[in-house]
Specification:
By secondary structure, the chain is an alpha+beta fold. The chain is built from 7 helices and 11 strands. It has 2 domains: about 5-50, no CATH class; about 90-345, no CATH class. The protein has helices at about 1-15, 20-45, 55-105, 145-150, 195-200, 290-295, 320-335, and strands spanning about 115, 120-125, 130-135, 180, 215, 215-220, 235-240, 270-275, 280-285, 295-300, 305-310. It has a 4-stranded antiparallel sheet with strand order 4-7-8-9, sandwiched between helices. Strands 1-3-2 form a 3-stranded mixed sheet, with no helix packed on it.
Length: about 350
């Protein structure tokens, strides 16, 4: 009997005492619970996001401020990336047009196409005519279909029959053509007046009219062979004017000024894209702030569209950087300057 009682007493003690493993688990559980509790209390006093009733005003303001900072960072980056992509397209267009311009000259015994626009201009001999590089089809056609249906697309259409190549993606809305040829490349005389039939006859059928050559530089040139000094890689052909051209892109030769109707293009990140007579295209970032900020105004054109010109007439640069930009364009157009350095402002 005593032996059975002792056995039952030991069995009862064993059941009442916690196992060794369970004791160890409790010993470790307490620190873990304390660690988790401490960190949750840092996140929120109530230990759980599920118990939150909403954001506080300060938290909302912080979120809004972070979003504003991110937008301030990413929007300019996105805009710059987009402009660079459009600039690449524009440079490609300029190269294609210039290669077409060279192909035209190769097919016409070295004579280059007229830089004028939207018509048929001069007679080279008794029978043949020299057409403008773009014809009336591009003069504010109203729609793509109207342009395509018009057979008068100009001399270069034979070589480039994609109308999108004639327009920069950053050009004025509604304008189907935004490129111009420099007037010096078989467009206008030095004074900006188109060459007439009388001029042609009195010049003994020479398109480099009297007085238009200085040394080895042909100022207003009509054949590829006219380009001797400076080299073809330095004589401008096309420039992205950003709007429908009114004749060629004219920049004065004898005076340090911009022509009022041919304001320097600025729609490519305060710069311009242009091509040279050897077929390559370049991007020029304007150096002078005044080149970008000189006063401009819009002029009504056909079909409810507008052209941009300089407000107040021809513009004479006031700063060294502004003069540098102007003279860079004048040299690309005419091959040299028509005035002395001391004549500049």
């Amino acid at each position: 009997m005593r032996s059975e009682a002792k056995s039952e007493s030991r069995h009862a003690r064993n059941e009442s005492a916690p196992p060794a493993d369970k004791g160890r688990d409790h010993a470790h559980a307490a620190p873990r619970n304390s660690f988790l509790s401490n960190h949750l209390s840092i996140i929120h006093p109530q230990l759980s996001f599920a118990n939150r009733q909403g954001f506080t005003l300060i938290e909302l303001l912080v979120v809004i401020a972070i979003i504003a900072v991110l937008l301030a960072i990413f929007i300019p980056v996105t805009r710059t990336a987009r402009e660079r992509g459009q600039r690449v397209v524009c440079l490609s267009n300029l190269r294609q047009l210039t290669m077409a311009w060279i192909a035209y000259a190769d097919d016409h015994d070295g004579w280059i196409v007229s830089a004028n626009t939207f018509g048929v201009t001069r007679t080279r001999n008794g029978t043949s005519r020299v057409r403008d590089w773009v014809g009336p089809a591009f003069a504010f056609p109203g729609s793509r279909s109207a342009l395509m249906e018009n057979p008068e697309k100009g001399a270069l259409w034979r070589y480039v029959q994609d109308m999108d190549v004639y327009r920069c993606p950053r050009g004025r809305t509604g304008h189907v053509i935004t490129y111009s040829i420099f007037s010096a490349a078989n467009g206008s005389t030095l004074e900006g007046v188109s060459v007439s039939e009388e001029d042609y006859r009195t010049a003994n059928r020479r398109w480099d009219l009297p007085g238009n050559r200085v040394g080895n530089t042909v100022l207003r040139w009509a054949r590829l062979g006219d380009i001797m000094s400076p080299s073809p890689g330095e004589r401008g052909v096309f420039i992205d004017h950003g709007q429908t051209p009114n004749g060629g892109f004219y920049v004065p030769y004898f005076s340090p000024m911009w022509d009022w109707g041919n304001a320097p293009p600025t729609h490519h990140s305060a710069g311009a894209t242009l091509s040279m007579a050897d077929g390559h295209a370049e991007y020029w970032k304007w150096k002078g702030r005044e080149t970008v900020t000189m006063p401009r105004r819009v002029i009504p054109a056909l079909s409810g569209l507008f052209l941009e010109g300089l407000d107040g007439g021809d513009y004479e640069p006031k700063t060294a950087d502004g003069l540098y930009d102007l003279q860079r364009v004048q040299k690309a157009a005419w091959g040299r300057l028509g005035y002395l350095a001391e004549d500049t402002p």
